[in-house]
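User: For a teaching handout, I'd like to show students what a predicted protein-ligand complex looks like in token form. I'll give you the sequence and the SMILES for copper (II) ion. Please answer with just the structure.
Assistant: Understood, here is the input followed by the structure.
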Amino acid sequence: MNRKLSVAVALGALALPAMFLASPAMAAQACSATVESTDAMKFTTSNLVVPASCKEFTVTLKHVGQLPKTVMGHNFVLGKAADISGINADGMKAGAAANYVKPGDARVIAASKVIGGGESTTVKIPVAKLKAGEQYSYVCTFPGHSAIMKGTLKLGT
Ligand SMILES: [Cu+2]
């Protein structure tokens, strides 16, 4: 089995139990999204809207490139738009061992680990922490990436 296929199979196996957990009322709006990241230091999705009916919103971060995480690592870190530059600066200082997120940073709403090419990870956003009308941002806090690797997120209806 080639690598891409085995990743797809693994993701399918993860998605199945999640579908059984969702109640019929929640099935109408997807409580998950996939964000791809690349060797060109980009997120392929630049904005996300989280349905207010979701309890948890799961983001699957995929690295569709080939470079290792020490060179072109990516993560997904969410905070209020106003907090994101501070989160990023402190995350860079925290270093690779901390996945470039300051341990215990109360401004961080959700953060994934850092992944390299061919890998994928998931991060769960607790929807109760999102307020209507507030602007949120997600970035990759790998050093030097956040200026380009960023997107906006808001709570929908
Ligand atoms: Cu990155």
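For the handout, you might add this sentence: Residues 88 and 141 are 5 Å apart (CA to CA).
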